[in-house]
Amino acid sequence: MHQRLTFQTALLLTLPPLLWAGNAVVGRLVHTLVPPITLNFIRWALALLILLPLAGWVLKPGSGLWPHWRRFALLGLLGVGLYNALQYMALQTSTPINVTLVGASLPMCMLAVGWMFFGARVSKQQVLGALLSLGGVLLVLSRGEWRQLLGLRLVLGDIFMLLATLAWAFYSWQLSQPKDPPAIRADWAAFLLAQIAFGLLWSGAMTAAEWGLGAAPIQWGWPLAAALAYVAIGPAVVAYRCWGAGLQRVGPNVAGGFINLTPLFATVLSAAFLGEWPHVYHGLAFGMIIGGIVVSSQR
């Protein structure tokens, strides 16, 4: 049974969008220094090293993890292997503001995935709110010119981010299912470490393919080192911990609405660090997306 949204839970669900907005900005800053899938692999490898002293026991034979390896392999694929790799790939050709606004289609994806694959009930208000949010996303994709939608002019990064959002919707619904050993589920570090361990296998295979296709060499230096430290600690360990805890309290549909704070944070951070000021259509899109969340939350 999901709990009502409290102030403490709201704080838990607000921190991840802030950290993920920073992740988008940092990913854009270093997109010429490291290939995107390689960046994702290094990020999670560092996160694994951080969590090993806290919950290394979960990888031992008798921990209860291995009889459930298929579930954790799926969580690792969706949340570790696919989502962040696709986001970093999106940032090769799109801006943090656009990427996070496209990612704000998550509530719509949450409703659709929950209804189609998890038997979740969907109200008329939720559908109306999702359509309003979708209008905001389409406004971003059209760059403020609706006629462009007729020509389906999508930047490649926009497509990657749409795929990333779909992967995150499936990940969040899977995360909300109580199918894990109680000892692992009760230990946030062990639960996350189990996902990362399998996710690194997926990410490692993708990284090998990236280099096999001729990825550009890594430009090592202090800027990249600082970026790696941030994305491994903040958007990975801290944000995933807070997201998982908040989602278990209030459920995917309520938690999904908080993702819409990410574009707001990304706009502020992009202006501060990248000099990428938003356009008028960004503000209109953000208003439509937030309006959709308000409508869908009414009962």
Describe this structure in words.
- 73% of the residues lie in helices and 0% in strands.
- The protein is mainly α.
- The two termini are 18 Å apart.
Summarize the structure.
The chain is mainly α. It has 13 helices and no strands. The mean pLDDT is 84.
What is the arithmetic mean of pLDDT? 84
Q: What's the overall geometry?
A: globular
Uncertain stretches of 5 or more adjacent residues: none
Q: If helices are DSSP runs of H or I spanning 4 or more residues, what is the number of helices?
A: 13
Rg over C-alpha atoms, rounded to the nearest angstrom: 19 Å
Helix content: over 70%
Order of helices and strands: HHHHHHHHHHHHH
Structural class: mainly alpha
Tell me the total number of β-strands: 0
Report, as a whole number of angstroms, the end-to-end distance: 18 Å
Main beta-sheet annotation: none
Question: Could you tell me the strand content as a percent range?
Answer: under 5%
